[in-house]
Each structure stands twice: as structure tokens, then as C-alpha cells.
NAD(P)-binding domain-containing protein
Amino acid sequence: MRILIIGGHGRVARVMVPRLIARGDEVITTVRHQEQFADVERLGAQPFGRPGRSIADTPGPAVGTAP
């Protein structure tokens, strides 16, 4: 299963990501700061986002449909 965790560098995410990876899930996480990308990747998740930017900076709809 493909799972998105918002706040991928937080306490809950740091516990959940390894568990989800161990059961075979693909985990994508949002991160706020560039230095968090490497930490999230070490946990096994794929970081998503543009460090230093907010969702509020995104022009147009912030939500789309999955392929």
C-alpha cells in the first residue's frame, strides 16, 4: 500500500515509518526543512516537498487525483 505521512520528521512518523516499511508498504512523507530529507530517507521513506515553502505558496488546487 502507498501511504502518505504528513510531518514525516515528527515523533509519530519516526516510529511508524519503519513499521510500515517492514510490512511492505511504500511510505511518502512531507518535510519542511532540507536537512530532514536525509533523515527521512534513512528511515526508508521517500521525502516529498519543497523545503522552505508552505502549501499556502502553491498556486491553484493543493489536492489532485492519483493516477
Summary: The helical segments are 11-22, 34-43. The chain has one domain: 2-53. The mean pLDDT is 81.
